[in-house]
Amino acid sequence: MPRIRFASALFCLLLAPASPSGAQNAMRAPQQRPADAASYKPVAISLPQPVNDPGLESFRKQLADVAQRKDRAALAKLVARDGFFWTGEKGERADRRKSGVDNLAAALGLNNKEGAGWDMLASFAEDPTASPSREHKAALCAPADPTFDGKAFNDLLAASKTEVEDWGYPISSGIEVRSGPQANAPAIEKLGLFFVRVMPDADPNAPAFLRIITPAGKTGFVAADSIAPIGSDQICYVKDAGGWKIGGYVGPGDSQ
């Protein structure tokens, strides 16, 4: 399954320092709302639901703390020793000669001190949703994707001549679409629970916003953390006699 790219790019933008001169130029130059684009048929989604498991919730809190401290030794205790899998687009990528934590570190790029790997791990830990893995029995992978009509979505891709990575979905209903990449810009529309097209051009002066096209064809901006990707990388949990562990990773990872 293709993996969407704008989520990982967003991490880099949010971590990059703002340019003072760029910010000054943005303040001087009046911003105009981009021209509207063609409308498209809405494809409804049902949001993924949190996993009702107190043990997993406790484990995620522990994982979040480890990620915040960037504690490699503590992380090793939270990763399954045996059977760790790393499923990429071309099949299994885990190196069986290495430990589970070493494979996880490779997938997330944790050895890169300037990378976003630990922040991504913290983000995974914060997500309460998960869904059963199709390839690995007893594994729950997070974040879970929403449910939707697959044929309708494929028809949308064909009609718009786009790819999966060009689309995202709102994390809640009623998210305001604004005329510019500012929190106080006028609202031009509110999003329902439908797929929205995400445009690839990111404004380096406003990394916290995404430019989107709504089903009505209106072009505007939303907070970057209000839109989730479909088919994003996932971290997978497994449960053994000692409790929950990180048992695998799904996605191309940091090295691609």
Q: What does the model show?
A:
With 256 residues, the chain is of the alpha+beta class. It contains 7 helices and 15 strands. It has helices spanning 6-15, 20-28, 54-69, 72-76, 100-108, 117-126, 150-160; strands at residues 45-46, 85-88, 91-92, 131-132, 140-142, 147-148, 167-170, 175-178, 187-191, 196-198, 209-213, 219-223, 227-229, 234-240, 243-250. The chain has a 6-stranded mixed β-sheet. Helix 3 (54-69) runs antiparallel to helix 6 (117-126). The radius of gyration is 19 Å and the shape is globular. The protein starts with 5 loop residues before the first helix and ends in a 6-residue tail after the last strand.
Please sum up the structure shown.
The protein has helices spanning 6-15, 20-28, 54-69, 72-76, 100-108, 117-126, 150-160, and strands spanning 45-46, 85-88, 91-92, 131-132, 140-142, 147-148, 167-170, 175-178, 187-191, 196-198, 209-213, 219-223, 227-229, 234-240, 243-250. It is α+β, with helices and mostly antiparallel strands and 256 residues long.
Structural class: alpha+beta
Radius of gyration: 19 Å
Largest sheet report: 6 strands, mixed
Helix content: 25-40%
Topology order in helix (H) and strand (E) letters: HHEHHEEHHEEEHEEEEEEEEE
How would you describe this structure in keywords?
single chain; 256 residues; alpha+beta; six-stranded mixed β-sheet; five-stranded antiparallel β-sheet; 7 helices; 15 strands; 27% helix; disordered N terminus
